[in-house]
Design a protein that fits this description.
CATH architecture of one domain in chain A: 2-Layer Sandwich
Oligomer: heterodimer
CATH superfamily of the largest domain in chain B: Cytochrome c-like domain
Structural class of chain A: alpha+beta
Helix content of chain A: 25-40%
Strand content of chain A: 5-15%
Radius of gyration of chain A: 26 Å
Largest sheet of chain A: 5 strands, mixed
Distance between the termini of chain B: 88 Å
Largest interface: A-B, 21 and 17 residues
CATH class of the largest domain in chain B: Mainly Alpha
Number of helices of chain B: 14
Strand order of the largest sheet of chain A: 13-12-1-15-14
Distance between the termini of chain A: 60 Å
CATH topology of the largest domain in chain B: Cytochrome Bc1 Complex, Chain D, domain 2
Number of strands of chain A: 17
Shape of chain A: globular
CATH class of one domain in chain A: Alpha Beta
Number of helices of chain A: 23
Number of domains of chain B: 2
CATH architecture of the largest domain in chain B: Orthogonal Bundle
Number of strands of chain B: 0
Radius of gyration of chain B: 29 Å
CATH topology of one domain in chain A: Alpha-Beta Plaits
Structural class of chain B: mainly alpha
Shape of chain B: elongated
Order of helices and strands of chain B: HHHHHHHHHHHHHH
């Protein structure tokens, strides 16, 4: 057993409101500079939709991730030794700028500096790449909230497993629904970007598993851009180097949460340490034949930080006590392993992503029932406009799991995103989420009786304590509950490189000009 | 243990090297060594003209200073307008004598060697003059020798001591040969310019700096010299009926053809590549103002 530590994340999609605050926080800190204008290390997509870059999930276009033929080992789909060599001077599957979008700004100064004239001045859009006026054709969240549109929602690669009838049902006006999918680099355990780099510039940090690109070693082959199935490695046209999400490691080392997580207004993001068995990576990636089994196998690699044998093996590998403590307190461990609520995004790419998603329960399926709103009308001002259309949008249900079975999203759609097609897995999670909701409804509102609450918990396989735990971490959790960041022990890293005693006696403050009566 | 054995080996190696060096150095004088290495390719002492003049008694005809300057760089003396030097240059078919970067002592040693072996000198009676070893006369050469020489010249047969092939620097106009290099003189008419003795002397003991360097530790054998001379004689004899090679158009067309083949090959590799943007259909529909 080769125990290693990985900083891992959980995004709770039920709580995401699609406000893009995370994207802006990331942009302001990391990618607001020449050559990086088009990059969004963190982006938020509307699902169903085509995402950013367009159709990134369709690996027949971009050739990302690993592919496994029966009986053989997993191989990179679009890179590798021979393929890399054949295409080394021209990588044929690269996304072009139009697959992302051409970044733009507006000539705001024209609004206030234009001479007086007959017309209002306008701020024309200009390209951030050429600096010339342009037509805006696309943006990084161009399909925001556009569920049902033929160009975006209906082109979603995840729909390919759904029958035409199912797809049609999904986009009927009354059933139309969507949710948001925030994405950052998954800091995978089996990263395709690392495997594809001909220069060996990409590496996974030993102490916390953050995947980084060494800017001095990168030689602009751009194999990582195609190899990453999540399209989270970007080419900077200004510096001629590739860049990607660094999980705000300078912030992590100082004990802060990454900027996207810190700024999240929905508090959907959780971060913590996970322990995993590095020996089993090759076994899982190369020997598991069916994609459906990958999720269980990946979750099986994640180790119990309370187990004596794991702790012993971890200490032998040099994992410090503080990191082990953080692993035991990790909210990610609770969501992923203890409660089994979170799943990786597209496990079939076989990169073993370490960012997990709690699938969305929303939208709740509602039924329409007859109701008389006449009483209510009397309370309103006579001038107020009022339709007594006689129906009620009713979200309560008689059957326990009626809403899940009749969910507006076919479970197949969620399954193709989070469990490589295993609908039962999605259903089990949605049941748990629903059970906690019904249980809390009995507690706080009281319109559900105790028997029903106990029955749903039992049916979903939860106890009252677990339900309280899930409720706490979902709805009440404080900053320190959501982000359990282990000390980075930079002092040890620094001592490996230089003698810290050299700086003794040279700290404190000094003078720009020599003091007159000084030494 | 091992170091001891090593030490014995190293010491004996040095000892042997010393013995051979001594034999080589002390067996002949400095002047004799230099003359036989360099001068004898073109000059005799008391045996008549070769490529350059007979040097018998030259120490009496010219001053030591003039000889020193001429040996060191004959072209410099000729260009300085020296009438004797210019006349000699014209007389001997304008074949420049290569420069020799020797010290005054070395040149003095050569001159005294010439004096010793000139008629009336102490060595002359003994040696009867100095000339290159005559070897087999070229009249004995047959078709087999010409063929062997051709193979040597073109590099089909490797030179025995590993020296570089002639046609890497020289060209000879001959239909049976592929074109040679343009780095050094064209040898088509070398035989009529230099004669049998000259060609043999230069091939066997090259005096020109680049050639000297190239063949210093890899001299040609006597048979090789004979065969090559036979071939050059043959090439000279038939030169008027041969065609000069022109590689330029040939190279251009083969280059273009190669590029075409490569393009087709790459086209095969990239047939399944991603062309343009995934969003092209959407963009094409959008209203454009620019």
């Amino acid at each position: 057993m080769d125990v290693r530590a990985q900083i891992s994340m959980v995004f709770h999609l039920d709580k995401c409101i699609g406000c893009h605050t995370c994207s802006i926080a990331c942009k302001n800190i990391w990618t607001d500079r020449k050559g990086a204008e088009y990059m969004w290390w963190n982006n938020v997509e509307t699902k169903p939709g085509t995402g950013y870059p367009t159709k990134w999930e369709d690996q027949e276009i971009y050739k990302g991730g690993w592919e496994k033929k029966p009986g053989g080992n997993a191989r990179l789909k679009g890179a590798g030794k021979l393929r890399g060599l054949l295409n080394i001077f021209h990588n044929p599957h690269l996304p072009v700028i139009d697959d992302y979008y051409e970044p733009f700004t507006y000539k705001y100064l024209d609004l206030i500096e234009s001479p007086a004239g007959d017309d209002q001045p306008t701020a024309r859009p200009v390209s951030l790449i050429t600096g010339k006026p342009m037509d805006i054709k696309m943006g990084p969240n161009w399909d925001d909230d556009l569920s049902g549109t033929p160009d975006y929602a209906r082109q979603d690669p995840n729909l390919k497993d759904l029958s035409p009838a199912e797809q049609e049902a999904m986009f009927q006006l009354e059933r139309m629904a969507f949710f948001y999918l925030p994405r950052i680099c998954n800091h995978c355990l089996n990263p395709a970007c690392v495997a594809s780099c001909p220069s060996g510039a990409i590496y996974k940090r030993g102490e916390d598993g953050v995947v980084l690109i060494n800017q001095k070693v990168c030689r602009a082959w751009r194999m990582c851009v195609t190899a990453c199935p999540y399209k989270k490695s970007y080419f900077n046209w200004g510096t001629g180097k590739s860049e990607k999400c660094i999980l705000c490691y300078p912030r992590l080392e100082a004990g802060y949460a990454p900027a996207c997580m810190h700024s999240c207004v929905g508090r959907i993001r959780y971060l913590g340490v996970m322990l995993y068995d590095a020996d089993s990576i090759s076994e899982v990636v190369n020997n598991i034949e069916k994609d459906v089994d990958l999720v269980n196998q990946q979750l099986g690699m994640l180790l119990d930080p309370f187990s004596e044998s794991v702790i012993k093996a971890a200490k032998e590998n040099g994992i410090s006590d503080s990191t082990l403590k953080a692993a035991q307190d990790s909210p990610v461990y609770k969501f992923v392993k203890e409660w089994g609520l979170a799943l990786p995004l597209h496990p079939e790419f076989r990169t073993l992503p370490m960012l997990f998603y709690v699938p969305p329960l929303l939208p709740v399926m509602a039924s329409l029932s007859a109701a008389d709103h006449g009483e209510q009308a009397k309370k309103m001002d006579p001038a107020a406009k009022f339709w007594n259309d006689g129906w009620l949008y009713n979200t309560s249900t008689e059957e326990l799991w009626g809403t899940i079975d009749q969910a507006r999203f076919p479970l197949k759609y969620l399954a193709s995103m989070f469990s490589a097609g295993d609908e039962e897995k999605i259903k089990a999670i949605l049941k748990k989420l629903m059970a906690v909701r019904i249980y809390r409804r009995w507690k706080t509102v009281g319109d559900v009786n105790e028997e029903k609450a106990a029955a749903v918990l039992k049916d979903a396989g939860l106890t009252a304590d677990t339900a309280e735990g899930i409720y706490y971490l979902t709805s009440l959790a404080k900053f320190d509950d959501r982000f359990v960041i282990p000390p980075a022990h930079r002092e040890q890293a620094i001592e490996m490189l230089e003698f810290a005693g050299d700086t003794k006696g040279s700290v404190g403050f000094g003078f720009k000009e020599k003091p007159e009566r000084g030494w | 243990m091992e170091w001891k054995a090593m030490k014995i080996r190293i010491v004996s190696l040095f000892f042997l090297a010393g013995v051979f060096y001594g034999a080589a150095v002390f067996g002949q004088s400095e002047g004799e060594k230099l003359f036989k290495q360099i001068c004898v390719a073109c000059h005799t002492i008391g045996q008549g003209k070769l490529i350059g003049p007979d040097l018998a008694g030259v120490q009496q005809r010219r001053s030591e200073d003039w000889l020193t300057r001429f040996i060191r760089s004959s072209q410099t003396v000729i260009q300085s307008g020296d009438p004797v030097a210019t006349a000699l240059f014209e007389e001997y078919n304008r074949i420049p004598m290569p420069d020799n970067n020797y010290s005054d002592d070395q040149i003095r040693a050569i001159i005294s060697y010439i004096a010793e072996n000139s008629p009336g000198g102490p060595g002359a009676a003994e040696t009867g003059g100095i000339s290159p070893a005559p070897g087999r006369p070229l009249s004995e050469a047959g078709e087999a020798n010409i063929q062997a020489g051709k193979n040597l010249f073109e590099g089909r047969t490797r030179l025995n001591n590993g020296g570089p092939t002639c046609n890497s620097c020289h060209n000879v106009k001959n239909d049976a040969l592929m074109g040679g290099g343009a780095l050094a003189k064209d040898l088509t008419d070398a035989y009529s310019r230099l004669g049998e003795a000259g060609v043999k002397a230069i091939v066997g003991n090259p005096p020109f700096p680049a050639m000297k360097q190239a063949y210093q530790n890899r001299p040609l054998t006597e048979t090789e010299v004979f065969d090559l001379t036979a071939f050059l004689q043959h090439a000279d004899r038939v030169r008027d009926t041969q065609q000069a090679k022109n590689y330029r158009t040939q190279l251009l067309f083969s280059g273009l053809g190669g590029a075409l083949v490569l393009l087709l090959l790459f086209g095969g590799f990239w047939t399944r590549s991603k062309r343009g943007s995934v969003n092209r259909k959407i963009y094409d529909r959008q209203i454009k103002t620019i």
